[in-house]
Amino acid sequence: MALDFPSTYQAAIGRPFKENWLVKVFNTSDPAGSPNNALMLSFGNTTVDDQHYEGAIEGSPSVRESIDLAAGSAGSDNITLTFSNFTYQGNPVSQELFGGSNKYINKPVYIYSQLNDESTLANCHLIFEGRISGISHSASKVTIKVVQHRPWDHIEIPTTKSDQDIYQPVVYGDYSINASASFADNKNLFPIPLNQATTGAYYYVSPRSLDGTSGNKGNPHYYESGADRFAQIGSGSASSVDENETSSIPVVSYPPKTLRSFLVRPIRINDNDQFTNSANAFDGNSGTSATHSFSGNGGSTKSLKVDLPKLEGSFTSVTLNMNVQARISAGGDPLDTVEVRNKMFGSTTTIITQTGSVNSNENTSYSENLTTKYQNNGNKMDDYIEIEGAISGNSGSFSGDIEIREIYLTITISLEDPNSTSSDKSDINEKAQDKIYLGCDGLSQTYTGGSGLAKRPHQIHRDLLKRFTGVDYSDTNMDGWSDLNTARSSWEMRVWILDPTDLKRILDRITFEGGFIFRFKPGSKGKYIHIKDTYASGDISATLSKSDTADLKVDHTSLPDLVTKRTINYQAHPAESKYLSTVVSENSTARTDWNIAALENHTKTDLDYYVGPDPDTDPTNNNPNDNFGAYYDNINGNIKVAVSGEIKNPAMYNLEAGDIVKFDNSNMVTSPFGKSWTNVAYMITGITRQVGHRKFTAVEVGTIS
Question: What percent of the chain has pLDDT over 90?
Answer without folding.
Answer: 75
